[in-house]
TrEMBL record:
Localisation: Periplasm
Family per similarity comment: Belongs to the bacterial solute-binding protein 1 family.
Top-level taxonomic group: Bacteria
Organism per entry: Bosea massiliensis
CDD domains named in the record: PBP2_UgpB (cd14748)
Protein name: ABC transporter substrate-binding protein
């Protein structure tokens, strides 16, 4: 998942790799590598396998994955390590952490490592939507690795029960509301037993909300990361739609909807449609005991979703040899074949068009067409909200969204307050 899927939870596990019985060259370059996962499980096993495979092919490089907690915990640890002088050589951190890492002088751009024609082709091979959060000021600061968009999942059996075509997801905001009304069920006492739709709002509500604000025709921040647009009338319209699903139409749970329990509610048929990351695709495929569909998010004035997820970054304080070794690993793990396999194993969007041309991905998509939905949505995707002082600026919006969803402020006032706070924080960067 990205921060938002399987990677939430308990304390960090520090993991290092050893290959038994293979003597390491004394001059091996050690590359420590922060990876955002909070608990052991399938993802750590995959990363461990990649590291071992890379070491077999590159015996002079020793890779040391360190499982550093959630994305939020990992960026804190990476910056703390940078300030104390011993940061990991490379880290997978949110694409939206780019401005923060630049402002802290913690990373170097990749451009100086891109030397050959082959390197240049590789750098040009990623989906343009993912590079929007990876490049600024004419330089490339992050390399896309585990990236996602928000998609709609629906329960085909519940659609059938409600008299809806199980093969036809809602294509517009109006249809989404209409379907949700038909899919909401109450018991004899008037208590809801099945919600029509659920859009999570805990943790990072701004990310899900960016689907709605994009569909309303708004962009939340400028490309330079020094101005936000939170109080734009189109943004207010988007928040009003979300609030109305719960407070007016009563087809969406009231208050704050938990990120982590939303897929579980879907599996337990407590909700018929949910918005969540494409990074949950493998989770849903493994755990839904019913036929389900995956679709692009419904359109308002337009279609749209933010991209999300993590990029590789290179530490400024690593030695040139370590940086070169890390660059070699990042190039290796993002080849079309490996990007395709990572997408198949996790549900993340494979980061390059070439990954979708590989035999493995073509066979997988033929067997499981929902794997292509997130890729097909990329032409409608926008950069995830990212600014200088990113955590504080997104917190201002998150607080506003939660105030509106819990009914403590009307949407317009909540967004005006969020914009005023963002202005205060970003003024020095203009």
């Amino acid at each position: 998942m990205d921060r938002r899927d399987v990677l939430t939870g308990a304390a960090a596990l520090a993991g290092s790799l050893a290959l038994p019985g293979i003597a390491r060259a004394q001059a091996a370059t050690e590359v420590s590598f922060f990876y955002p996962v909070a608990v052991g499980g399938p993802i750590t096993k995959l990363i461990d396998t990649y590291a071992a495979d890379f070491e077999k092919e590159n015996p002079s490089i020793k890779l040391k994955p360190i499982y550093a907690g959630t994305y939020q915990e990992t960026i804190v640890k990476a910056l703390t390590a940078h300030k104390s002088g011993t940061p990991p050589v490379t880290s997978v951190l949110l694409s939206t952490d780019m401005f923060t890492l630049i402002d802290e002088d913690a990373i170097v751009p990749f451009d100086s490592f891109v030397k050959t024609e082959d390197d240049k082709k590789w750098l040009a091979s990623f989906f343009p939507a993912f590079m929007e959060n990876s490049q600024t000021g004419g330089k490339t600061w992050g390399i896309p690795f585990q990236r996602s968009t928000v998609v709609l999942y629906w329960n085909k059996e519940l659609f059938k029960e409600a008299g809806l075509d199980p093969e036809k997801p809602p294509a517009t905001w109006a249809e989404q509301l209409d379907f949700a009304q038909k899919l909401t069920k109450k018991d004899a006492s008037g208590n809801v037993t099945q919600w029509g739709i659920q859009i999570p709002s805990s943790g990072f509500p701004y990310w899900l909300f960016q689907g709605l604000s994009t569909q309303a025709g708004a962009i939340l921040a400028n490309a330079a990361g020094n101005a936000t647009n939170y109080a734009d009338p189109a943004v207010v319209e988007a928040l009003q739609y979300w609030v109305d699903l719960a407070q007016k139409h009563k087809v969406h749970p009231p208050g704050i909807v938990e990120w982590g329990t939303t897929p579980k509610d879907f599996f337990e048929k407590k909700v018929a449609m949910m918005w969540t990351t494409t990074g949950n695709l493998t989770n849903v495929r493994s755990n839904a005991k019913f036929s389900f569909g995956v679709a692009m998010l419904p359109a308002g004035k337009r279609r749209g979703s933010p991209t999300g997820g993590g990029n590789f970054y290179l530490s400024k304080k690593a030695t040139p040899a370590q940086q070169e070794a890390a660059f070699k690993f990042i190039r290796w793990i993002t080849t079309p074949e490996r990007a395709a396999q990572w997408g198949i194993d996790t549900g993340y969007v494979a980061v390059s068009p070439a990954a979708y041309e590989t035999p493995a991905m073509q066979a997988y998509a033929k067997d499981f067409p929902p794997a292509l939905v997130a890729r097909d949505q990329l032409p409608h995707a926008v950069a995830e909200l990212s600014t200088h002082e990113n955590q504080r600026v997104t917190k201002a919006l998150n607080d506003g969204l939660q105030a509106a969803l819990t009914g403590t402020k009307p949407p317009k006032k909540a967004l005006e307050d969020a914009q005023a706070e963002a202005e205060r924080i970003l003024k020095p960067y203009r």
